[in-house]
Amino acid sequence: MGENDRAASRSPSPPRALPTAQPEVLGDDYLVEEETFSWYDPDNWYPVKIGDVFESRYQVLLKLGFGSVSTAWLCRDLREHKYVTVKVYVTGHRQARTEYKVLQHIGSVSSDHPGRKLVRLALDSFELPGNKGPHVCIVHEPLGLSLAELRDMFGGQIPPYILKGFAYRMLMALDFLHREARVVHTDIQPGNILFVLADATVLDKAVEGEWEKPGLRKVDGDRVVYCSTELGVPDDLGDPIICDFGDAQFGDPPFLGEVMPDLFRSPEIVLAIPWDRKIDIWAFGLMIWHLLEGDTLFTERLPSRDASTPAHLARMISLLGPPPPDLLEKGNVTANYFNDDGTFKHPDLVSEATLEAEAKVLEGDDKAQFLDFIRRTLKWRPEDRPSAYQLTNHPWLQEVFQK
C-alpha cells in the first residue's frame, strides 16, 4: 500500500490546538504586507486567522506570503494528512477566475510530456463567503523558495552552472504549456518560479516555530493581519515550477490586450499588436539575463505605462537596432511613437548600448554563446523568436549536459 493510500485509509485528523504563547502585536500605525497597497480595502480581503478550518478539511497553520490580489497560507489537510498551500483571492478579481479556469484546463491535459510536472497544478478549489462577495480559494502542493529569493541568496547573480540547468527545465515547462496545453503564461519572472520541496522538514520547522513563538501580527478589531513566515532553506533544491496563472490565456492565438509586467513587455505588447506564446520567450530571455547579470535590461519605470513607453522603445532600439517596417505596420499605436517613414519620434532617448558591453559575468566562448541565446529570445518580430523546445537545444544550455 502506497503512502497516499495509507493516508486515505486513516480517519481525518482533529484540528490542532492553537498556540498558547502570546504573539507580538504591532501598533495601529504599522501597515502590514497587503495593507501597504494603495488599493487595499479590508472588506475585499478575507480575514484568514491561524487555526481556521476551511471546508472541514484545511486548517490554517501560518501565512506564507501575499500578492496584489491574494494571500497564501500553509494549511494541514486533515483528511489526507499532509501540508497544502491555500491561495485566498480578494473578492471579485478577474485573476481569481482566470487562474481557476486555466488550472482546470491544464489539469485536463493528458500528457507524458516531461514539462507537465514542472507546472503547478490545482489540487482543489472552493469559495469562502465575504462582505462584498465570495473569495475564490485554490489549493496547491506547497513549494519552497522562489527564483527571486534564490537570486538574492547568491547576492543578486545566480552562477551560470546552476542557472543553465534551471533554464533548461523551465523551457521544458514552457514547451508543455505552449505546445500541448496551448497556454501562454504572460507573466514569466523570477517571483513566479518556485522550487519543489524535497521533504517536509522545512515546513515542520516553520510550523513548530509558529507554535512556540507566534509571528508578528496586527490586530484591527476582529481582523488580524499577519506577517508572512520565512521558510528555512532546504539542503537540496528541487525542480523549478512555473506558478501563478492569473494573467494566462489559453486557446487559439492571436490574443489581444495588455499583459506582462512593465519591464518585461515585448514589442508586440508595447505597440498593441495581437500576440501569442512568443511573448513568453521574450520574457524568458529578459529573466535569464537578470538572473545571470544581476541587472535588468529595461529599467525605465514611470508613473504610467504610457509615460514609460518612449524610453522602453528607445532601449529596445539601442540594444536591437531599429524595428522592421512590417512590424510597425501591424501596431495599433505605432503612430504615437514612430513617424510615417518608420523613424523614432524620440531619437534623443536612444543611447549607444550593446549587449556585448553590458554582459559582464561571462568571458570567451561562454559569453558568445550566452549572447547568442539572449539575442534569439529578443527579436523584434515574434515569429523570429525560437520556440521553447528549440531553445532547449541551444549550445549554451547543452554544454551542461556534455560535461
UniProtKB/TrEMBL annotation:
UniProt cross-references to SUPFAM superfamilies, sorted A to Z: Protein kinase-like (PK-like)
Domain Protein kinase intervals: 58-397
EC main group: transferase
Keywords: ATP-binding, Kinase, Nucleotide-binding, Serine/threonine-protein kinase, Transferase
Catalysed reaction equations from the record: L-seryl-[protein] + ATP = O-phospho-L-seryl-[protein] + ADP + H(+); L-threonyl-[protein] + ATP = O-phospho-L-threonyl-[protein] + ADP + H(+)
Region (Disordered), start-end ranges: 1-22
Name of the protein described by the UniProt record: non-specific serine/threonine protein kinase
Pfam families, per the entry: Pkinase
Biological process according to GO: regulation of mRNA processing; spliceosomal complex assembly
Tagged with keyword Membrane: no
